[in-house]
Write a structure and sequence with these properties.
This protein is an alpha+beta fold and about 120 residues long. Helices cover about 20% and strands about 20% of the residues.
Amino acid sequence: MSSIHDLDLKETEGSVIHPVIPLSSEKVNEHEIYLLENGEDCLIYIGSTADPDTMRKLFGISSVDEIPSQQYDNPLSKKLNEVINEIRSQRCNYLRLKLCRKGDPSGGRSMMLKGG
């Protein structure tokens, strides 16, 4: 799991992928947005009180109730696309991407991102 709500704030050395955060409920903050992947699926977890401005830049929404099914054309969204494509390039399978929020029984909504 890695944070993506702060892509513009953190500089990484030699990689677009941010450092891994241990996957545990203690590490998940409802104000933040995370990327989780298991080699087959890539989930973006949007906290219930995530910053509306960050959600707008990443996904074109201001609330988790408006989760989209497409990528938006702005610098922060493009940076997220770079992170996901870097992870995809390191895997044997093409990762499916889903957005999810707390309490989503379906496991999220599929989202199409441009391939690398």
